[in-house]
Design a protein that fits this description.
This protein is α/β, with parallel strands linked by helices. Helices cover about 40% and strands about 15% of the residues. The chain has a domain of about 190 residues: 3-Layer(aba) Sandwich (Rossmann fold).
């Protein structure tokens, strides 16, 4: 990352348009994709128009939103290499108001495809800028109010693009033993990116996931994370819930799969918290 320079222009925040939030943690299995899918669904359910950008080569967010592999004609790879716009690559989901730019294994080749491009950390930021221009030229269409980026579990050119394009980062933290180690590394990464690529980047919030209130470990991790991040941690905690784990295999967000389960209700509360935090941010 030290080879990238900060002089490539402003962050996404200078463009206006949708609020861009990267959902990131360098650790795998913490609930990034589940959070992206279900937060997007909950925001759409309260009237927001949301675009989920799948930036993980595994394409799990695409699968979890019901997009079959053969339907992924244009993907986030095409967006990053300049062969498609975000609007052209976006697909409607079963949730009204929720769209997805799908991903597949082509993303593995992005690093090589952009190897000689000095602007490679800013490809997604430029695509977001183009999206805003397209939406302004089409006033008859309802514009996206949120872009949620599902990041891969590593610091590579994909994550750098997500962080460079984003206004803020939402950090899912699994309530398990090595949680604090992972988020302290992520905080260092965010500080580095803020210093070199995107000075406007902030932590929107930290969400505790896979919480089991019956175990002392979950309670202890939650206390430690709240001590580390303070008010950045959302009050809402996402419980460990079988129905949440089952939903992606059916190609459905949990709010469609089982609206009444504890996981669904938790994501609705989380969306409410995020919207309220966004309102306070805009009013400040």
């Amino acid at each position: 990352m030290a080879g990238y320079v900060s002089g490539m222009g402003g962050a996404a925040g200078s463009f206006g348009g949708p609020r861009v939030i990267s959902i990131a943690n360098q650790k795998g299995g913490v609930g990034k994709t589940t959070t992206a899918i279900n937060l997007g669904t909950a925001l759409a359910a309260v009237g927001e128009r949301v675009l989920v950008l799948d930036l993980d080569p595994q394409g799990n967010a695409s699968t979890g939103l019901g997009i079959a592999p053969e339907a992924r004609v244009r993907t986030s790879y095409d967006v990053l290499v300049g062969e498609s716009s975000l609007l052209e690559a976006s697909l409607a989901t079963a949730v009204p108001g929720l769209y997805v730019v799908p991903a597949n294994n082509d993303l593995v080749g992005v690093e090589a495809a952009l190897a000689n491009d000095g602007t490679r950390p800013f490809k997604l930021r430029d695509a977001v800028s183009a999206l805003i221009g397209q939406q302004r030229s089409r006033p008859q269409d309802t514009p996206f109010s949120y872009v949620l980026i599902d990041c891969p579990p590593s610091l590579n050119v994909l994550t750098l693009n997500a962080m460079s394009a984003a206004h803020a980062v939402l950090v899912p933290v699994q309530c398990e033993f090595f949680a604090l180690e992972g988020i302290s590394q992520l905080k260092d990464t965010i500080d580095q990116i803020r210093a070199t690529l995107n000075p406007q980047l902030e932590i929107q919030g930290v969400v505790l996931t896979m919480h089991d209130q019956r175990t002392s470990l979950s309670r202890e991790v939650a206390e430690n994370v709240r001590a580390f991040f303070g008010p950045k941690v959302y009050e809402t905690v996402i419980p460990r819930n079988t129905r949440v784990a089952e939903a992606p295999s059916h190609g459905k967000p949990i709010l469609l799969y089982d609206y009444d389960c504890a996981g669904s209700q938790a994501y609705i509360r989380l969306a409410t918290e995020i919207i309220e935090r966004e309102r306070r941010f805009k009013a400040a």
